[in-house]
Design brief:
Blueprint: H1 4-18, H2 30-47, H3 52-67, E1 69-71, E2 74-75, H4 87-93, H5 96-104, E3 114-117, E4 121-127, E5 133-139, E6 155-159, E7 162-165, H6 176-183, E8 191-193, E9 207-214, E10 217-224, E11 232-239, E12 242-249, E13 257-264, E14 269-273, E15 276-281, E16 286-291, E17 297-300, E18 305-306, E19 315-316, E20 318-325, E21 332-336
Antiparallel strand pairs: 1-2, 3-4, 4-5, 5-6, 6-7, 8-13, 9-10, 10-11, 11-12, 12-21, 13-20, 14-15, 15-16, 16-21, 17-20, 18-19
Length: 337
């Protein structure tokens, strides 16, 4: 026979495994945050309509969606996330006024810098000047291999709703080869050690991520040990139109090659001269100069593909890699004109 109590107990146990207590899904994804929330709310409303978790989960997700949406109807493809927000689920779960707030947040004029953080994601919205909005997001988590990409400490950046530093994204309709590529470190703006594998056992890995504001500078720090034999840390400083990226990798041998990879939006044009990369998009008035370590080698990415807003995987990847031998000594500077 079927006992309701057993079903409810199993369901609540599943929710404990799917979510942190404060409401974040453990599946490393903006898209699955909303997808899992829908099932959680349906279940809780049936078994305990007075459960505090209904509002805890909904309120958390409401803030989360806003801070990772860069344009009306679209979110950063950070984590294993689709580019398009599931507006049908948003309409089902939230009021009409909340729907409008989520839609309008990416274009809302903010007088002060806004920072947001949870266990695995951070977001910073700041002003380059009085008229331009810089939106920076980063991720770092490892709970299991469920919807897990090798994207720890990867980031995306948009200026006035135009994505500059991007992510290859996620698709559930691509081929096995395509989906495996999208999950690999080669599809993200992150740090690699050439020839070293990423750990798949969440029980033995550690990840930390934090954000704070110090006067007019936003500081982001993250650390992980998913690359076998190494601890990787990334420090981001954002001050107006200037960004510095300081990466460190432990236990390096002189023969190790460190790869700092940068994925760009397909709309960006790049040119490389020595240790300097110019990132231009005339259509949107984007003009950025990135300067790498003086002894590094910088090459355009010539492999890989994106998952687009329709989940199709057919566009060649755009970006570049900075290769350094044996150690990382200098930060990377990004200057927005």
């Amino acid at each position: 026979s079927i006992h309701r109590e057993n079903i409810v107990e199993r369901g609540l146990s599943t929710l404990d495994k799917m979510f942190y207590q404060f409401g974040l899904t453990r599946e490393h994804s903006l898209s699955y945050q909303l997808y899992n929330l829908n099932f959680a709310i349906d279940f809780l409303q049936k078994v305990d309509p007075t459960s505090a978790n209904i509002n805890i989960f909904k309120d958390f997700t409401f803030s989360f969606l806003q801070y990772f949406s860069y344009s009306k109807g679209y979110q950063f493809a950070i984590g294993e996330s689709f580019r398009s927000i599931n507006t049908n689920l948003v309409a089902k779960l939230y009021s009409a006024e909340q729907n409008r707030q989520i839609e309008n947040f990416p274009t809302t004029i903010l007088e002060d810098n806004q920072i947001y953080s949870n266990e695995e994601f951070v977001s910073s919205i700041s002003s380059i000047n009085k008229n331009n909005r810089l939106h920076f997001v980063m991720t770092n988590g490892h709970n299991s291999q469920i919807h897990k990409q090798n994207d720890n400490l990867s980031f995306c950046l948009a200026i006035d709703g135009i994505v500059v530093f991007d992510d290859a994204g996620y698709s559930d309709v691509g081929s096995k080869e395509q989906i495996e590529f999208l999950a690999s470190s080669k599809a993200h703006t992150t740090v690699d050690v050439k020839g070293k594998k990423w750990c798949t056992n969440a029980a033995v890995t550690n990840c930390d991520l934090s954000i704070r504001q110090n006067s007019s500078t936003i500081l982001i720090n993250g650390t992980h040990d998913l690359i076998n034999g190494h601890t990787v840390s990334r420090e981001i400083n954002i001050a107006g139109s200037e960004i510095s990226v300081y990466d460190r990798v432990s236990n390096l041998a002189n023969s190790d090659t460190i790869i700092q990879r940068f994925i760009l939006s397909p709309e960006m044009d790049i040119s490389i001269l020595g240790n300097t990369v110019s990132i231009i998009c005339t259509k949107h008035g984007i003009d950025i100069t990135l300067t790498g370590p003086p002894m590094s080698k910088i090459n355009k990415i010539n492999h890989g593909f994106y998952s687009d807003k329709l989940k199709q995987v057919d566009q060649s990847l755009n970006g570049f890699e900075i290769h350094s031998e044996g150690k990382l000594t200098e930060p990377i500077s990004i200057s927005i004109k």
